[in-house]
Amino acid sequence: MTNLATRFFFTAALCGLIGMIWGIQMSASHDHTLSPAHGHLNLIGFVAMSVFGTYYALSPKAAASRLANVHFVIAIAAVLVLTPGIALAISESGETLAKLGSVLALLSMVLFAVVIFRHGIEQMNTAGQGSGAHRQPAGK
Fold first, then answer.
1. Are residues 125 and 99 in contact, defined by beta-carbon separation less than 8 angstroms?
2. 17-54 burial: b if 16+ Cβ within 10 Å, else e
3. How confident is the model at residue 122 (pLDDT cuts 50, 70, 90)?
């Protein structure tokens, strides 16, 4: 899986699948104590990763940047730290991971904004092939 968009989409699908299984387990057990952690897994793991993947699929030059690959690593770390961190905080086992995961999630979104600012959105010609033209990012 070398394509960044594919990595984001695969991660989104995996998080969505885990989130659905977890939701079914909560429903079957009638124990919704960890629903905030479940919600963050779905929101950051599925929704945000899908949005990131869509942008990088539409903007291959942005996806080829080093910063975009750093963004992927930070986004994965955010999900892997924040979700169990929220579960631990709910069970009163400490809030450190939840706090760290929140900072990682914020950093992930900041990196995404920087990538968009730097690269804009690539324009497609009528044949659906990249024309090489770019919308100029703000300030350029």
1. no
2. ebbeebbeeeeeeeeeebeebbebbbebbbebbbebbe
3. confident
